[in-house]
């Protein structure tokens, strides 16, 4: 009987892991199933661009996995039962290969369900705000911005949250739709986590794009046509974009997998659950401690490192090979400021911004190159396929466990 590997989620982390497992393990011994609610690969790093009006063609997962032997199941994950080693799924819109409700059994589970927008308990966010955490929500915002532009009256857009997503969303919208008035609400100083030079560059970009910045401002409610701030200020808004945080899916916690307070799965150095050894977590879903002793932030970069470590660990354990410790680092942030400007901000071992940063057109081009390379990696999962794939071992190799102890 083949070893059943089920990957939940086909974002940057999940699609990467599935493709590389298919690349390195023999089909004679393993079957890999990817469960995803949408038929397309979502370039989350570019959703703010999609929302602002850029044309971004979606990669079909069926095309990306063609020829790999990976089975694509278009369905929503509704529950995980690690004791019975099954996953419950429900029909996803659009149909597709293997779609339908029921249960999937697994021998090894890779949990990569990512994160979603966190309303932080603020009233009205769910009912009235837009976000760029998923493709459907980004498309809804795109339609709203388009309708404001067609109205010709100069609509007002309020972006709440000055993290990387908020900064990129505000600058992209302001540049792509100059007829709209854009405001960016920051809880503290604008770009507080950046170096002094980078903060100055960011302010110049906001001035150039006519973005109104409100610093040291907390939002306590979102209404259909305005944003209410804790100091009593009411900001008129025709489209409120909520980027004030992200939360992970609660399915792992509900299934009894050990998680942190915010729901991320607790793992060892190889991304294996500390409570359920045949469950691995990658991407935003995992609480992974980096080489600097600090938790890796939710990011595409972290998804790559955790995904690579999980692949090495799964292949090593199943084939009785030594498991290498891949690096788990976070050394910089790339931030786009519209289409022709950007910043690279390096961080130190403590996760703090260093004085060194790079800004301007070159940074924007490098970030675009990173986006293209990430997409290429997902769309070519079998690139460099070895002539001989690894066969599964008949029994675990104790040395593989000692290698990562």
TrEMBL record:
GO biological process terms, semicolon-separated: aerobic electron transport chain
Cofactor field: FAD
Annotated GO MF terms: NAD(P)H dehydrogenase (quinone) activity
Claim: Nucleotide-binding is one of the keywords in the record: no
Keywords tagged on the record: FAD, Flavoprotein, Oxidoreductase
Keyword Nucleotidyltransferase in annotation: no
Matching SUPFAM superfamilies: FAD/NAD(P)-binding domain
Residue ranges constituting the FAD/NAD(P)-binding domain according to the UniProt record: 4-294
InterPro entries: FAD/NAD-bd_sf, FAD/NAD-binding_dom, NADH-Q_oxidoreductase
Coiled-coil intervals: none
Family membership noted in the UniProt record: Belongs to the NADH dehydrogenase family.
Listed name of the protein: Oxidoreductase
Organism per entry: Micromonospora inaquosa
């Amino acid at each position: 009987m083949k070893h059943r590997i089920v990957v939940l989620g086909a974002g940057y982390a999940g699609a990467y892991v599935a493709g590389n497992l298919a690349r390195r393990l023999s089909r004679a011994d393993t079957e890999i199933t990817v469960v995803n609610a949408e038929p397309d690969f979502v370039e989350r790093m570019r959703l703010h661009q999609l929302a602002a009006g850029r044309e971004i063609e979606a990669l079909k997962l069926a095309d990306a996995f063609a020829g790999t032997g990976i089975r694509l199941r278009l369905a929503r994950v509704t529950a995980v039962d690690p004791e019975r080693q099954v996953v419950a799924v429900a029909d996803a819109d659009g149909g597709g290969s293997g779609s339908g409700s029921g249960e999937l059994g697994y021998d090894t589970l890779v949990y990569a369900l990512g994160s979603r927008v966190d309303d932080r308990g603020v009233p009205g966010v769910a009912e009235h705000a837009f976000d760029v955490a998923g493709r459907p929500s980004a498309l809804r915002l795109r339609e709203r911005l388009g309708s404001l532009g067609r109205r010709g009256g100069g609509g007002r857009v309020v972006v709440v949250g000055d993290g990387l997503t908020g900064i990129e969303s505000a600058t992209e919208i302001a540049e792509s739709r100059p007829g709209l008035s854009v405001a960016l609400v920051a809880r503290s100083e604008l770009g507080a986590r950046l170096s002094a030079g980078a903060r100055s560059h960011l302010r110049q970009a906001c001035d150039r794009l006519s973005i109104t910045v409100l610093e040291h401002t907390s939002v306590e409610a979102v209404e259909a046509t305005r944003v209410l701030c804790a100091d009593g200020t009411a900001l008129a808004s025709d489209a409120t974009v909520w980027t004030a945080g992200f939360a992970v899916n609660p399915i792992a916690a509900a299934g009894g997998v050990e998680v942190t307070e915010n729901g991320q799965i607790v793992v060892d150095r190889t991304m294996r659950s500390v409570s359920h050894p045949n469950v691995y977590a990658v991407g935003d879903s995992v609480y992974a401690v980096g080489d600097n002793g600090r938790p890796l932030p939710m990011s595409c970069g972290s998804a790559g490192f955790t995904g690579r470590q999980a692949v090495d660990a799964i292949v090593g354990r199943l084939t009785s090979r030594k498991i290498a410790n891949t690096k788990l680092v976070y050394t910089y942030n790339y931030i786009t400021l519209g289409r022709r400007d950007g910043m690279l901000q390096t961080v130190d071992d403590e996760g703090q911004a260093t004085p060194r940063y790079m800004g301007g057109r070159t940074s924007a081009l490098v970030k675009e190159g990173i986006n293209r390379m990430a997409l290429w990696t997902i769309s070519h999962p079998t690139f460099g396929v070895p002539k001989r794939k690894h066969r599964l071992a008949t029994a675990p190799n104790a040395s593989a466990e000692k290698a990562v102890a």
